[in-house]
C-alpha cells in the first residue's frame, strides 16, 4: 500500500482553490503576506502598517506573533505563505542582536527564491507627513538611483525584489495624468538604501507638456543590508521561464518603423505572361470615358482615310 495518497477535493470551493494554485499561462497579481516575529514594535510596526497601506488590496496580514527564524529554518515560513496562497512575504521582528529588522522575500514552487534582511536606521511613517495622500489603488512609479544597483548580483536581485514588492497589476498603457505616485530607491556609497515616496504634481508650464513637481508624502526610510539569501542561477532562470504558448513567433520579412507601421516583403516566383488570361477580365475592362475616346479616335481615322482616297482618285 502506497503512503503517498492523492487527496481529492470534496467540495466545489476546494476544487476551485486547488485549480487556482496550479500553474497558469497568465499569472494573477501577486499577493503579499505580512507577519511578525516573537517581538515586533517601534519602527517595524509602523513600516508593516504602511506597507499594508501601499500594497492594498493585494495583501494579507497575520495578527498573531510567530516564532520564526527565516534564515535558520524557513520551513514554517514557507508553510504559512503556501497556506495563504501568497507569492511575496514581509517578516518584521526586533531583538537585541538585530533591532528593527525586516525580511523581504518571494516564493517559487513552494520554496524561498530570494530573501533579504534589512535593518531600519531611520523611519518616518505616513502619519508623520500631514498632507494629502495618494488613493489606495494608484500604481506607483519605481525609480532606482545610482550605478551600484547593477554592480553586484545581490543588489540586482534586491532591485528586482523591491520591484515585485511594490508592483501591483501589470499595465499595457500609461496616461500622463494617471502617474501620481513615485517611490525612489537610492543606493549610497556606504550601501545604505534610501527609500522616499513622492506625490507628482502637474503644474502649468505654458506648453503642452506640464511642469512636474514632487511633494514628499512618506513613508521615508533608511535601510542597511544585513543578510541575504539568493537563489542559484539555475533556480532563478527556472522561475523566469515563460511558457511556449505565450511566446510570440518571429515572422520572416516583416519589419516595423519608428511610427509603428508594419512593412512586409513578399517573394513571388517567375510568372509566365504568355499563359495569363487577359480576355473578359473585370480589372482590364475599359471605362465609359475610355470607350468614348476610342470611338472618337476611330472616327477621326476613318475620316482621314476617306480624305486620302479622294485625293488619290483626283
From TrEMBL:
List the Gene Ontology MF annotations in alphabetical order: rRNA binding
Region (Disordered) residue ranges read: 258-314
- Answer yes or no on keyword Nucleus: yes
List the keywords (alphabetical): Nucleus
* Residue ranges occupied by any Brix domain in the UniProt entry: 30-234
Q: Where is composition skewed (Basic and acidic residues) in this entry?
A: 286-314
Q: Pfam families in the record, alphabetically?
A: Brix (PF04427)
GO BP:
maturation of LSU-rRNA from tricistronic rRNA transcript (SSU-rRNA, 5.8S rRNA, LSU-rRNA); ribosomal large subunit assembly
| Cell location | Nucleus, Nucleolus
Q: Which InterPro entries match?
A: Brix, Rpf2
Q: Name one GO cellular component term.
A: nucleolus
Question: Which SMART domains did the record assign?
Answer: Brix (SM00879)
PROSITE patterns per UniProt: BRIX
Quote the PANTHER family the UniProt record gives: BRIX DOMAIN CONTAINING PROTEIN (PTHR12728), RIBOSOME PRODUCTION FACTOR 2 HOMOLOG (PTHR12728:SF0)
Into which family does the record put it? Belongs to the RPF2 family.
Q: What is this protein called?
A: Ribosome production factor 2 homolog
Amino acid at each position: 500500500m502506497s503512503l503517498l495518497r492523492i487527496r481529492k477535493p470534496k467540495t466545489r470551493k476546494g476544487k476551485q482553490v486547488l485549480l487556482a494554485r496550479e500553474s497558469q499561462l497568465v499569472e494573477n497579481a501577486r499577493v503579499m503576506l505580512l507577519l511578525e516575529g516573537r517581538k515586533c514594535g517601534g519602527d517595524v510596526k509602523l513600516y508593516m502598517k504602511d506597507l499594508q497601506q501601499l500594497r492594498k488590496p493585494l495583501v494579507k496580514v497575520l495578527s498573531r506573533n510567530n516564532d520564526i527564524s527565516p534564515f535558520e529554518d524557513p520551513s514554517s515560513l514557507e508553510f504559512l505563505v503556501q497556506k495563504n496562497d501568497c507569492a511575496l512575504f514581509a517578516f518584521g521582528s526586533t531583538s537585541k542582536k538585530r533591532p528593527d529588522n525586516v525580511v523581504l522575500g518571494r516564493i517559487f514552487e513552494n520554496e524561498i527564491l530570494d530573501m533579504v534582511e534589512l535593518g531600519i536606521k531611520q523611519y518616518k511613517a505616513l502619519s508623520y507627513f500631514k498632507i494629502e495622500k495618494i488613493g489606495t489603488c494608484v500604481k506607483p512609479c519605481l525609480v532606482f538611483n545610482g550605478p551600484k544597483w547593477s554592480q553586484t548580483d545581490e543588489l540586482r536581485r534586491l532591485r528586482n525584489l523591491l520591484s515585485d514588492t511594490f508592483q501591483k497589476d501589470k499595465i499595457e498603457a500609461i496616461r500622463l495624468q494617471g502617474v501620481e505616485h513615485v517611490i525612489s530607491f537610492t543606493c549610497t556609497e556606504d550601501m545604505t538604501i534610501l527609500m522616499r515616496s513622492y506625490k507628482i504634481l502637474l503644474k502649468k508650464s505654458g506648453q503642452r507638456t506640464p511642469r512636474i513637481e514632487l511633494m514628499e508624502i512618506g513613508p521615508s526610510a533608511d535601510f542597511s543590508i544585513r543578510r541575504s539569501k539568493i537563489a542559484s542561477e539555475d533556480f532563478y532562470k527556472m522561475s523566469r521561464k515563460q511558457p511556449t504558448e505565450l511566446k510570440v513567433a518571429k515572422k520572416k520579412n516583416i519589419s516595423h518603423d519608428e511610427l509603428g507601421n508594419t512593412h512586409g516583403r513578399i517573394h513571388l516566383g517567375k510568372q509566365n505572361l504568355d499563359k495569363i488570361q487577359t480576355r473578359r477580365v473585370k480589372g482590364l475592362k475599359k471605362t465609359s470615358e475610355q470607350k468614348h475616346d476610342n470611338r472618337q479616335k476611330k472616327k477621326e481615322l476613318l475620316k482621314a482615310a476617306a480624305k486620302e482616297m479622294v485625293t488619290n482618285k483626283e
